[in-house]
Amino acid sequence: MKTELKSFQLPDEKGYFGPYGGSFVPPQLQGVLDEITQAYMEIKDDEQFLTELHALYKHYVGRPSPIFHARSLSEKMGGAQIYLKREDLNHTGAHKINHCLGQALLAKKMGKQTLIAETGAGQHGVALATAAALVGLKCDIYMGEVDIAKEKPNVIRMKILGARVISVTRGTKTLKDAVDEAFEAYLGDPITQFYAIGSVVGPHPFPMMVRDFQSIVGREARQQFREMTGSLPDNLVACVGGGSNAMGLFTAFLDDEEVLIYGVEPSGLSLREGEHAATLTLGKPGVLHGFKSYLLQDEKGNPLKVYSVASGLDYPGVGPQHSLLKDLERVTYVTAGDSEAIDAFFDLSRFEGIIPALESAHAVAFALKLAGKLEKDKTILVNLSGRGDKDIDYVAETYGKDYGVV
Fold first, then answer.
1. Domains contained in the chain, CATH given
2. Which of 8, 29, 311, 348 has an alpha carbon 20 to 30 Å from 21's alpha carbon atom?
3. Which residue in 131, 316, 179 sits closest to 241, CA to CA?
4. Residues forming the active site
């Protein structure tokens, strides 16, 4: 389906990306969200704010993150050339710092005292704790008990940075439940607290705001790739849970119809209910956590149990703009399972010396399959959204024997 530029000049003033998005929250919270929206719209093009933010991107985060040509991995596949946008090299080890700094600065300017957030893999939690320490705000991070056990290194990092890590023991004890509890805490005090949502999800203005802060990834990549190769990439690939790293890369290329775009969801153990988190693949429109998007849900509209080896991807919803891009057929949403992600984790480590986050390994897994089907003159740019430091203990314990690690 052909898309037009106007399809991406979104959201509208009510926060809708076509039929998705919006703000489905209690009246007492809507007034607070309206204040955040107004504050963000005032600073998003403010020269002083942007100068401060981009100085931090350069001197604190280490931007621009480089693009690396994965020649050995490309040769192994015998097809298209694979390139990596190295968001794993950012301070804190992932793309999350891009929007955390933006939201922390906004919260500080609004006079808030505490940043709160959910986290799955811990990367958003670490990035927000880092940003809070930098700007002088308190920080509360809600994290599922299961994820705390899997991602112990990131839990320790958050505590070292001064954040309070609150273990969530309800439900499946993973990301969706952490969002529930953080949201309830925010409802208890939306005046002194600022809920720094960790992806392009949630009620308006968060899907727009997080996308805008993450769009630096795609803007850099577009310029860098042209300088390296003389053209745009033929294919873009990024993993999709909530979808912030993917929107960060995709946004700069949405109007380039010659560039094919792929979002990779986790198919987990299988596509049976409860064994995956392939929301755009198997979900249908519904409302969760204050916004409308594709949702894995039962016949009553309740979110289904989800699973992925990557804690940052096990969410039953997805960003509303991704939902629109699926309907417009501008982005093709595919899946990669646990076993494929683990294989890719070790392939990238052993062929290129880069240990990826398990979330990013899903994107690498699909890119490897895609490369093998394409000619050698074709190119694939993968958003390597995070590094795998946080995952090595879990991977060694769970898969080490199979890959000669233990």
1. 23-57+96-211 (3.40.50.1100), 62-93+213-403 (3.40.50.1100)
2. 311
3. 316
4. 96, 118, 385
Amino acid symbol at 254: L
Q: Cα–Cα distance between 13 and 22 in angstroms, integer?
A: 9
Q: How many CA atoms lie within 13 A of 64 on its CB side?
A: 15
Can you tell me the mean pLDDT for 225-250?
98
